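Repro:
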Amino acid sequence: MSQLFSPYAIGPLQLANRIAIAPMCQYSADEGRATHWHMVHLGHLALSGAALLILEATAVSPEARISPHDLGLWSDEHEQALLPVVQA
């Protein structure tokens, strides 16, 4: 029997299965801010049944981005744009 659907632990984090969605650069942010696109895209993946969803690369300063459309987290404004996505 495959262990793919059996529970797994990463340290104290208990996962329902061994399916993980790897981080992907989506180049869909607006000056580093998460958009409605992120809500729909990540929301769809969150409902997929995978036990772990890893957010895309997120720059900690404007200079750290590899493109102008990378997700960022260098200000309160960026945090507020990403908050509803993470909460959902």
